[in-house]
Amino acid sequence: MKLKEKFTALMNDQALKRKLYVIIFEADTRAGKLFDVVLIWCILLSIALVILESLQGLPVWLKTPFIVMEYLLTAFFTFEYVTRLYCSPRPVKYAFSAFGLIDLLATLPLYLAFLLPGARYLLIVRAFRLIRIFRVFKLFTFWIEGQMLLTALRDSSRKIAVFFVFVLILVISIGTLMYMVECGNPDTQFCDIPNSIYWACVTLTTVGYGDITPVTGLGKFLSGCVMLIGYTIIAVPTGIVSVSLMKRQERSAAKECPNCHRRGHDETAKYCKYCGADLEGEAE
């Protein structure tokens, strides 16, 4: 009974939950920064272990230390995940959030390895948790720019989708045309249309693996044309996103404070960063 009472008291200890929340979820305190730095080093160590274990020819004596460290790190990440659930004001919301799911996925692979031996290499997913480094070093400028880029991509998504469909049609057409040109040659590698479409993808994107090459003069001429088209196509999505970014920056620059009449606020800003006035209110 005493154990049950202690467990109930622990689950209802709001002071402890608040203290742990500040340390784990916030980086404004010294303890919070220290915790995040330790967490990042543990993540880097875990990723390094997974990569090193995949190498061939490692000394046999390293196997046991690697396994021990992997278990210790997984125990730490499990404890950290459970603690986050414990001190979070909304555990369910955290569990289904992006970071919550990443934290869970970073913890499960070693346990799944008991059923699926290859699953342990999924520990590499812990690399996604390095996103926390933005919070540790206060790189809010980069975070804002990242949000602006994501917003620009979302605004341009329809144009990019249409462009992608156009490229898909172009690749199928070029692949089919190259098959028609090359299929009659006995030394050709364009033995079917899917293989030709694969060549068109590689050539149009200017990757150029060189595993499939035309042998006829007309095929080589067409190949050169596709390469030149590829250079122009690559610039299109970049231009679409750049225009969207410029439009958002212009809207941000045009946002004027009704109190101090200064510009240059973020598009989502509600208050002036110069005088603190409500940007949607009236001047005092």
Mean pLDDT reading = 77
- According to CATH, what is the topology of the largest domain? Four Helix Bundle (Hemerythrin (Met), subunit A)
End-to-end C-alpha gap: 63 Å
Judging by the overall fold, what is the CATH architecture of the largest domain? Up-down Bundle
What is the H/E order? HHHHHHHHHHH
Which CATH class of the largest domain? Mainly Alpha
Derived structural class: mainly alpha
Helix content: 55-70%
Please, how many helices?
11
Low-confidence stretches: none
Oligomer: single chain
What overall geometry do the principal axes of the alpha carbons give? flat
The counted number of beta strands is 0
What is the beta-strand fraction? under 5%
Radius of gyration in whole Å, from Cα?
A: 28 Å
| The number of domains | 2
Biggest sheet layout: none
Walkthrough of the structure:
- α9 runs antiparallel to α11.
- 66% of the residues lie in helices and 0% in strands.
- With 284 residues, it is mainly alpha-helical.
- It is built from eleven helices and no strands.
- The radius of gyration is 28 Å and the shape is flat.
- The chain folds into two domains: 137 residues, Four Helix Bundle (Hemerythrin (Met), subunit A) (Up-down Bundle), CATH 1.20.120; 105 residues, Orthogonal Bundle (Helix Hairpins), CATH 1.10.287.70.
